[in-house]
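[Q] Does anyone have a clean structure-token version of this?
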Amino acid sequence: MDKEKEEALARLKTRLMFTVKRRKEVINNSIMERRTAIHRQIRHRRYLYHKFERMQMMAPVSISHVSSSHSPCSEVSNVSSHSHSHRESDWWERVVLAEFGPQEWLQRFHVSKDTFYLLCNTLKPQFSQSGLLMSPSKLTLPLEKRVAVALIRLATNMDYSLLGELFGESVSTLSQCVREVCDAIIMLLKPLYMHHPGVQELAENARAFHMKWGFPHCVGVLDTLHIPIRSPPPHARDCWSRKGGHSVVMQGVVNAQGCFWDVCVGFPGGTEDATVLQSSELWIMARDGGLSPQPPLLLMGQPVGYVLLGDEGYPLHNWLMKAYPASPQLTTPQCNFNGHLNNCRATIDHAFRRLRGRWQCTHRRSESHLELVPMMALASCVLHNVCEMHGDPFRDEWLEEVRQLECPQPSVTSPAYMDDPNAEQVRSLLCSYFHMQQQGKVPPLEPEPLVAAGVPFPHPYVAPPPPAHGGLLNMP
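[A] Here you go.
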């Protein structure tokens, strides 16, 4: 009798497990269908937005053609235009070069006119034939026009078909323009505007972070950015990120001014942050002692090297700090440390927003070939530094576009076994430093407000007072 009951219970248990499994599958499928529908709506809205933007961009061209059609020589010009399949390249020669003022220049190319010609002069050695490229139509393409094509593509992610209408060139020629200009930016501008800091630059970075954010020994903040891409059939599963959608991962490190000094890009969207870090030149630099000055620096009498600040997706190392995991058991000094670290990490959030706002190829879904996406992203980071260092204006509507098309960035917690046990000593020392600073035992440095091109950073972190009862302070 007991055996029959056990068998009946086993069968019932099997049925229940099967039912639960099927129910989970139904729920997961429903979630995926809903997520797909949401992304479809987002893509449709982006299409409508891009269509409206195209209409705005084409307005100067249409006006110029209307005015020319009423001129006495309109018939002659029309006959001439038909010989080249009605090329509309006069938008560059007649509208941009002749009529654009500073605001129109900034609106279309997202750089000032001075910076545009600075780029052209710097990139000129990379191109032969005095900066001319022979197009399929056997017409020469000046260097300035090539740079303009690349900047519009990077700044607005405009389709090549529309670029062809504006510049009167074929899609293949324009694609080659973007590729070669991005390559020239990486070859010639990257060594000047984005490189690993030397001994003196590391000391200046640490001083800047300490003065502006009150965080000692910090020389950079790192994080990852997911660049949305179209679904690549051979690698669709690898490029699928945890928040939905296909993407390419870019890791960046910024200084206190929000300029990048290290970028690693090209990983599939499913790659974890720790894997990206361990595959980057930054990892090799830190492993070889690039962040450990000699003789070692001292903090509260203890030797401590330079540190970078990351989020929970990175492993803890003596050169890479992250916040304590949220828990009701956190002490007041630990909560204080988390507050300072998270406030300092706002630097890279701010830099990523400005990067995506000015160079929207890093924010909007890219239709470029998969191998070209990392090159465009790296070139955009270099151009971000160029604009920041030369003080190019930043338009508020660019940030508004980022907010409207905001996509959730995947996040995952690095497993504890990847943490370096010796790194906890450095984090505890920094924790004690901030706690003693709060108590007035270490003279604090008053942080300076950090403002870049009219967009202020968040206010410096102010630690809360310790609880009156002396107990634990819960994380918010």
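[Q] Thanks! Anything notable?
[A] Residues 2-69 form the longest helix (68 residues).
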